[in-house]
């Protein structure tokens, strides 16, 4: 029994067929979404041969995604959440179909790619806010940690299978077929949404607008535990997300070029996926605030460890630095180990942060808080990219993760002592 309890708890699948269909639909459609994200980058680079042009996809969609997160949350609190999810899914699906039409038509224009990907990102963000607000209505509160872990597995599959599949399809059959495959995969998402019952929010909510947004902000001001989940995530993503260093590490210190950058990126994702697979014990954790604090402390230590590996390479302790053609295997392996640990710790924190958000927030306010959560998740990594990029201008590639790891450990310790209600947060009596 103990061995089986180590693995992810599948009870949410047994408890709710609606959750199962929604999970399957989201996971399959997510593979296609990740595939299209990569394919669009390839497509734009194929037209322009410019990395800057590729990066503009994220820049153009950032502000609309933030607005969509807030709007999606307000819509999910004012209308039937099944209807909000369905219409946003239809818009996202039509955008993918539009990309397929552009590719099959041989239109060598950038603006349709930017426009369609931006609208797709907006619709997908609204869909995510509605779907997250739906989840607690499908399952009892004690199964929400297991559901969050299952969603972590789904996300892990998406970000590993989708990009790999995109590379194979683009190189073998071209952009038209790649987008068309996503059109087909996306239809599975409708299976989960269409079979849901109407999910009308409890109570009454303001129509989407400033009053609704102020109501959500006012609730957050008086919800220290929920506010802490946002703040801790911002700290972790700002100071502990060194992904923009990977290309330079592959070219300058660790060697191996783009291959090393890809391996380092995959290590974080693999750690997160493995921690979801072995997430069985998480369902029995009662003091979830403390668990988040401990998980993020481990996260900071792992980022500090990664920075230490980079520092020792810069000091020559591993011998001569690598080149693009010659990778330094030992430090890469140690770096991957620390990044995998960081990914696992971040996923554990995410499971409990999601659980607190879904169980402690009243249903009438859940959509707006999910929308704010999406804004944090969207903006945090980009703030982290800016932090790392600015410090990396010193040419000390070890400085951002080394300093960032120390900052995470210190700030988490200070906040856990300062906000006593969060350290005492009890899953058996959830309070916002």
UniProtKB/TrEMBL annotation:
Keywords noted in UniProt: Cell membrane, Membrane, Transmembrane, Transmembrane helix, Transport
Cited InterPro entries: MFS_dom, MFS_trans_sf, TM_effector
GO cellular component: plasma membrane
Subcellular location: Cell inner membrane
Membrane topology: Multi-pass membrane protein
Residue span(s) of domain Major facilitator superfamily (MFS) profile: 181-432
Keyword Signal: no
Recorded GO MF terms: transmembrane transporter activity
KW Heme (keyword) present: no
Gene3D superfamilies: MFS general substrate transporter like domains (1.20.1250.20)
Transmembrane segments: 22-45, 51-72, 84-107, 113-134, 146-170, 176-196, 228-246, 252-275, 296-319, 331-352, 372-392, 398-416
Pfam families attached to this UniProt entry: MFS_3
Record-given protein name: Transmembrane secretion effector
Organism per entry: Klugiella xanthotipulae
Lineage, opening ranks: Bacteria, Bacillati, Actinomycetota, Actinomycetes, Micrococcales
